[in-house]
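Reading a protein record of the kind used here takes little practice once its layout is understood. An example of such a record is reproduced below.
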Amino acid sequence: MLAIVLVMFLVLLLAGFPIIVSMGIPALLYVIVEGLPISTMAYSAFQALNSFPLVASPLFVLMGCLINEFGETTRLFNFCRVLMRNAKGYTAKVNIIVSLLFAGMSGAAVADIGGLGQVEIKAMEEEGFSRDYACAVTAATSMVGPIFPPSIPLLIFAVLAQQSPLHCLMSGAIPAFAIVVCLYIFISFQCRTKLKGYHDEHPAAEKESLWAVTKEAAHILFLIPAIIVAMLGGFCSPSEAGAAAVIYILIVEAIKGKFSFSILKNAIMGTYKTVSNIFIIIAVASFFTKVLTLEHFPEMVTSAFLGMADNPFLILLLINLLVLLVGMFMETISALTILTPILLPVAAAIGVAPVHLGVILVLNLTIGMLTPPFGVGLYTVATVGKEAPHKVLKELLPLYVPLLIALMVITYVPELTMWLPSLL
C-alpha cells in the first residue's frame, strides 16, 4: 500500500497536477482501502492548522505586503544606493544588502523578487550590467529571505517539528549573514568582468544627500532590528511581534498622510492569497505525511540512510543532495511539510539538532527554487525582469557556487545556527 501511495503521488506530481491533488488523492485512496473513516482527513487537517505559532505567518506576510503597497521598498533601496554610490559595481552589492534588509520584512524569496525585483534590475542596468545578469543576481540574493527572521518557512518548520518558533526564527540570522558574505565576495570579483559600459553619472535618485534618504527610510530601517531585539529580549512572541509591526506601519503611514483603505485592502488581499496557499498545503500534506507515518516510512528512510553510511558527515551530505533534488520539483512549503517528519528521525540518529535541520532544509529547498525544471524563483525573476529564463539561468549558474559554499558551511558548522537560540 505504501508503494502504491508513493508511486501515485510521484505520477500525479510529474504529470503536472497541483500539489494538493498529488498528495490528496493517494491519501484519500489509502483511507478508503484501509477502511478508515473519511473524517480522519478533516481531523488531521484541523490538528495541523490549530496552532498558535502559525498566527505569526499571516501577520509577517501582511507586514511585507503593507511595506510593498506603501512604497517603502523603493525608499529602502534608494537609501542603500546613495550609501554605496561611489563604489564601482555598487548596484550589484546593494542588491545583496537590500535583500537582507527586505528579508526582515517579507520572510520569503518570491516576495523579495516581486517587491524589489524591478527596481534592482533597472538600477543594475543603469550602471552598465546586462539585464540577464541583473536578473540572475536578483534571484540569487533573494535566497536570504526564507532564512533571515522573520522567516515564513522556518515558522512552518517550527510547527511541523514541534520546536520553539522563536528558536527556529533566530537560528536563521547568522546563516543569512553567511550567505550574504559568500555572495558579496563572489559578486565583487564578477563585477570586474560583468560591468560593461560603466556610467560615472549617477541617476537622479542617487544625487540626493545621504541625510535626506536616511530620513525617508529611517522608520523602516528601525523596524527590522526592533522586531529581532523584541523577540530576542523576550518582550514578545513572534506572533505578537508581527502584530506590533503591522500596527506600527499603519500608524506611521497615517501620520505621514499616506494611509488609504485601498492600499490596506490590496495588502490584505495579497496576504489572503499567499497565506491560503500555504495553509491548504499544510492541511493536505499533514494527512499525507500521517499516511506515510502509519506505514512506517520515516523508519525505513532512517534505516536506509544509516545503512548507506555510518558517518554523520556523509549522511548530512546525502540529506543535502536529497533535499536539493526535491526542491527542484516541489514548492518549498509542500516539500518542507513532507520532508520534516521523514528526516527528523534521521537527524536525531546522527545527533543533529532539529533547529539546525530546519535551516538546512529551508536553504536547500530555497536553492532548489532557482533550479529547473520547476524553478519558481527562476521563472519569477525572468517574468519580473522581462528576460528569457534560459538567459537568466546561464548567468545564474556561476552564482550557485557561493550559495553551495554557504550551504556547506552552515551544514557542517552547527554553531552558526545554534549560537543565537542557545542564548534564549
Summary: The radius of gyration is 22 Å. The chain has 22 helices and no strands. Residues 37-422 form one domain. Residues 261-294 form the longest helix (34 residues).
